[in-house]
């Protein structure tokens, strides 16, 4: 109830406020090209009062969960300080993959008379709040665009990080964490040389570092290959899109038609990775059009239109704003 009503301003207003803060704190370049509003997400003002009410409750519960998590991290930090381990402890904090735009549990929850916040409930935040949550990226959970796989991260290690408070834009992967930890504890390089990831200890030490090879991604009919310059990415099985992330970090201008040779080169690398690591000779993805939990989410015409669930009259007084 602490947050109830705070999100009635809508997801676009929340996203714009976050962009303003990201610019203020030096995380986002004020001149960066940002993604257009998704074609499959309705304007907040087009929603009914009942839809807005349930959407506000949905995000209010999510905000409360984040606050409780934040308090728990604070208790952990305090305990480390009390036992003298805080200065020489590396803490890596990052979120899961992109925000969940789906609402596959809505109907089942309402049949049971359960609202977001009720004990035993299991609601998702839906596309509107996923759009706000991935600010300033495009797309969401299961997508292999940056909104689905890119997350900010915090590294905290007072005795080991040379330049504290610095924003670094090098692209890391979760598979890099294990080699880095082994590197930090002075393990022989042979112990992590065969792992998929690369150690990013040089970054923490203030040194130059660049990934040696591409990163590959796939989930159902979404896939991508990412290099230091290019993102080749597909959503909803619609074919490849190509982005020059050195100039267009947030994937706003598709260059696939202008650079077919780069598409061909990167696609060959992706297929080689898929067949080698997957021990298969074909690529036949599962479609998001047929599964019970997901749906096409492309923001430029291929995605399913998001229709927010309205608050039922019978439950409207339970968490009345």
Describe it for me?
With 321 residues, the chain is of the alpha+beta class. It has helices spanning 11-24, 49-82, 106-111, 126-133, 146-149, 177-184, 201-204, 260-278, and strands at residues 91-94, 153-156, 215-219, 222-226, 230-234, 241-244. The protein has a four-stranded antiparallel beta sheet with strand order 3-4-5-6, with helices on one face. A two-stranded antiparallel sheet has the order 1-2. Strand 3 and strand 4 (222-226) form a beta hairpin. Helix 1 runs parallel beside helix 4. The radius of gyration is 22 Å and the shape is globular. The mean pLDDT is 94.
Catalogue the unreliable spans.
Answer: none
**Secondary-structure element pattern, one letter each:** HHEHHHEHHEEEEH
Number of helices: 8
Amount of beta strand:
5-15%
User: Could you estimate the helical fraction of the residues in percent?
Assistant: 25-40%
Give the CA-CA distance, first to last residue: 8 Å
Mean pLDDT: 94
Q: What coarse outline follows from CA principal-axis ratios?
A: globular
* Secondary-structure content class: alpha+beta
**Rounded to an integer, what's the Rg over CA atoms?**
22 Å
Biggest sheet overview:
4 strands, antiparallel
Tell how many strands the DSSP assignment holds: 6
In spatial order, strands of the major sheet run 3-4-5-6
